[in-house]
Amino acid sequence: MNVVHAVAAPKSFYPRGTLKCEGSVSFRSQAARDVACLLDLDAEVRSWRCNPPALLVPGGSYVCDFLVSDVHGGETLVDAPDRQNGSSEADIKLAAERGGFSFRQTARDEVYGGTRLRNARDLLRYANYSVPLGDRLKLLAALEEHGTLTVAECLTAFSETRPIGGFASMVLNGFLEVDLDDGLIGPGTAVRRITD
Predict the structure, then answer these.
(1) With 0-12 CB in 10 A as exposed, 13-18 as middle and 19+ as buried, what is 144?
(2) Which end of the chain is more exposed for a tag (fewer CB within 10 A), N or C?
(3) Bigger pLDDT: 145 vs 195
(4) Which residues contact 106 (CB under 8 A, 6 or more apart)?
(5) In a 3-state reduction of DSSP, which class is residue 74?
(6) For residue 174, what is the DSSP state?
(7) C-alpha pair distances (Å), 64 with each of 87, 89, 137, 153
């Protein structure tokens, strides 16, 4: 039986940190890593994992780049835009449906159009940062008082940790909201507190 799947290259791809990945991390290409960056910052994505179950397609089996679980309980098999499928997209979709999944190949513009990916890469550099309670409380109290602050104003709240790492960590962990599509994150970017 012929197996077509995403083989992870021996080198790692930038950035190294992930947020919503379950299991081991192995990316087939930089394009696959780029898709994972977007998955990490997609509010509709609960989790994702590399090397999902193989699908039976005509002529063998096929392994997509990711299995994505959404916040509504759905599961979608996703391929990066650089993926050259040995099988037709229709065969992959049919095999995915038989397995209880939907299938989607991301479009190049969806990944590389606009500023979302660049902002996601910048933030995910700090995926492993942790913000001490004091810094977190100072910034959240300031946002509660003022409603909205700029990034530059937020950075002054950090005294126990590096300001950029602390700021990025708070965005990644759902305390702060910035518009990732409006432009590159800069000193004047508006920051809001996320409230449940």
Answers:
(1) exposed
(2) C
(3) 145
(4) 35, 78, 79, 80, 81
(5) coil
(6) T
(7) 11, 11, 42, 43
Residue type, 64: C
Q: How confident is the model at residue 12 (pLDDT cuts 50, 70, 90)?
A: confident
pTM: 0.89
| Helix count and strand count (H, E) for the chain | 7, 10
| Residue 111: count of CB within 10 angstroms of its CB | 19
* Residue in this structure with the two tokens 């192995």, named with its chain if needed: 26
Contact assessment for residue 160 and residue 132, using Cβ atoms and an 8 Å cutoff: yes
pLDDT at 6: 46
* Residue ranges covered by each domain of the chain: 2-112, 116-193
CATH numeric code, 116-193? 1.10.10
- How many Å apart are CA 20 and CA 144, to the nearest integer? 28
Q: Mean per-residue pLDDT for 130-148?
A: 96
